[in-house]
Design the sequence.
């Protein structure tokens, strides 16, 4: 297939299908998760401080006392990767144009070289986290196919985006198409792997914070 | 008398023709140096080019026009004048060309047949326009269908130059739904070297460069995977665009008349296809190096790429989805919700079954 034709296909029907599957998958998983329900809590709440659920959404991102010192790599690389990835997605102008094309909203972006630095930082952080996962006995024991698949499918869009930006390895049009394909794979797989945390994180943290506060437990 | 005889006969070599037109050696060498540079040849090759071109016999060229708009011919003829490139172009032996030849009807076809006979195996065949395959009657010349004329004329050609995106890739006639069944030259001819000089129209000097290369080396230049000369189509317009620094800085024109547009910021958001378009517009430019579309404030349409007409909207950024997703989102949400309700119902009934199967144990049971 000629490169521009491939790019046209991945920007057209392939993107439609992957966005559709992603949206359908997210809604399916939300129904599945929330539909399980919880038993009514009949106990009198301890210290039902208002906003404890909302607080927890943010406080769970801060390392508990002593944890940072015990495992600084996970925290630092985790922060670098997550913020780098988020900035790369939402502050690179060609990506903002995609968002504008899908949702109709847009905002100013960052200069290309700055996004480039953030992408490299994210890639390095991801590699360090993978190495650490291999070498840390606890992490290795906890890791399954889902974790490694999620890592690969997150790493590929960043890597192919970087290669496309710098015109490396493959011809630009083809690499751009490969980049978009890698994103489409990520979109399709997102609702059905641990990557779903990007959606479930918010209300699971809220629920944990809220229920723990009702029970008088710090969260 | 001798002088009159001399000027009335056609020049035998390109050098002779140039001398007659009063082109100095210095001017000619300057031209060859530019050509060498354009074709990414070492500077020392300029001398070789000059020697080869000046001694070369006037290359017989047969030019066939099929489903086209004559834009390619307009570009190649008008835009050169009165530069040196035009003189060289004049000094090839253009034995057949609908638009430019004086002869018509039978005389015109005889000129083509004569040129084919006299230069069999040596002439260069230039084609602009695509070939309709759905019905041969869609485009004919002197009652001969385009495909028949192409196959017949290609037989004795040393090489074929497919000028313009229509000849190179099918171009606009091939745009969906392609009512004439238009195909590119390379879809029909498989046994001859074909050089695709794509563009809608192509840059005039690219054509001259290709001819000069053929005259000098007797072979076609190095081509990219789409059959285009690498020297001219090796890099994207975006790579050499003078607005590129604005892209890197994140400065974009949002509309055609905003402050960014007036300040010459990048046209990416306005749909510029420069990042995925391989051509030399940003370096060679048009109208004797005056300007090119991006310089005059319009995004690149990507006209030198195959099927550019169907590769998304012209005024939509190259990263944007091609089709609107609103309807799709609704359908996806509905499908997800239906599947979600089904899964939830299944889970809940499983939970209810487990609950009903639960047996309450008492202390007495534990003692058993």
Sequence:
């Amino acid at each position: 297939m000629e490169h521009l034709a491939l790019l046209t296909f991945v920007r057209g029907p392939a993107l439609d299908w992957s966005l559709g599957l992603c949206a359908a998958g997210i809604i399916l998983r939300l129904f599945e998760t929330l539909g399980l329900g919880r038993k009514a809590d009949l106990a009198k709440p301890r210290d039902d401080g208002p906003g404890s659920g909302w607080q927890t959404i943010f406080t769970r991102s801060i390392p508990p006392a002593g944890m940072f010192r015990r495992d600084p790599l996970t925290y630092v690389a985790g922060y670098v990767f997550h913020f780098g990835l988020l900035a790369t997605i939402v502050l690179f102008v060609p990506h903002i144009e995609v968002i504008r094309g899908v949702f109709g909203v847009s905002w100013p972006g960052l200069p290309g070289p700055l996004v480039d630095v953030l992408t490299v930082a994210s890639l390095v952080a991801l590699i360090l986290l993978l190495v650490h996962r291999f070498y840390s006995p606890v992490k290795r024991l906890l890791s399954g196919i889902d974790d490694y698949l999620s890592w690969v499918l997150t790493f590929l869009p960043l890597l192919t985006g970087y290669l496309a930006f710098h015109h490396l390895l493959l011809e630009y049009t083809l690499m751009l198409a490969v980049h978009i394909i890698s994103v489409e794979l990520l979109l399709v797989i997102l609702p059905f792997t641990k990557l779903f945390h990007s959606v479930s994180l918010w209300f699971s943290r809220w629920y944990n914070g809220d229920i723990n506060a009702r029970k008088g437990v710090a969260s | 008398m001798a002088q009159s005889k001399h000027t009335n006969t056609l020049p035998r070599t390109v050098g002779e023709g140039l001398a007659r037109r009063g082109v100095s050696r210095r001017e000619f060498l300057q031209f060859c140096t530019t050509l060498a540079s354009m074709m990414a040849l070492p500077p020392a090759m300029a001398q070789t080019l000059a020697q080869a071109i000046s001694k070369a016999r006037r290359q017989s060229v047969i030019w066939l026009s099929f489903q086209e708009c004559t834009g390619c011919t307009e570009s190649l003829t008008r835009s050169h004048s009165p530069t040196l490139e035009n003189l060289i172009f004049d000094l090839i032996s253009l034995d057949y060309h609908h638009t430019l030849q004086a002869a018509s009807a039978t005389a015109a076809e005889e000129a083509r047949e004569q040129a084919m006979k006299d230069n069999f195996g040596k002439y260069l065949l230039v084609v602009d326009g695509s070939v309709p395959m759905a019905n041969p009657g869609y485009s004919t010349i002197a009652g001969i269908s385009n495909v028949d004329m192409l196959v017949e004329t290609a037989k004795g050609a040393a090489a074929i130059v497919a000028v313009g995106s229509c000849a190179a890739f099918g171009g606009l006639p091939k745009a969906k739904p392609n009512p004439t069944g238009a195909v590119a030259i390379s879809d029909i001819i498989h046994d001859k070297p074909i050089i695709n000089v794509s563009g809608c129209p192509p840059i005039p000097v690219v054509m001259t460069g290709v001819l000069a290369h053929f005259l000098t080396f007797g072979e076609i230049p190095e081509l990219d995977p789409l059959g285009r000369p690498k020297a001219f189509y090796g890099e994207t317009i975006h790579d050499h665009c003078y607005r590129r620094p604005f892209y890197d800085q994140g400065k974009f024109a949002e509309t055609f008349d905003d402050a960014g547009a007036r300040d010459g910021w990048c046209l990416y958001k306005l749909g510029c296809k420069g990042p995925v378009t391989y051509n030399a517009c940003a370096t060679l430019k048009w109208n004797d190096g005056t300007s090119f579309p991006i310089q005059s404030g319009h995004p690149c349409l990507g006209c030198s790429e195959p099927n550019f007409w169907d590769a998304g909207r012209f005024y939509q950024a190259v990263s944007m989805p091609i089709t609107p997703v609103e309807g799709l989102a609704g359908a996806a949400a509905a499908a997800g919700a239906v599947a979600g309700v089904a899964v939830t119902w299944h889970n809940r009934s499983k939970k209810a079954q487990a609950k009903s199967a639960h047996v309450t144990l008492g202390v007495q049971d534990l003692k058993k």
Q: What stands out?
A: Strands of chain B lie at 60-65, 93-97, 123-128, 131-132, 140-141, 144-145, 157-163, 182-183, 194-197. Residues 1-7 of chain B have pLDDT under 50 and may be disordered. Chain B has 17 helices and nine strands. Chain B has two domains: 10-232, 237-310.
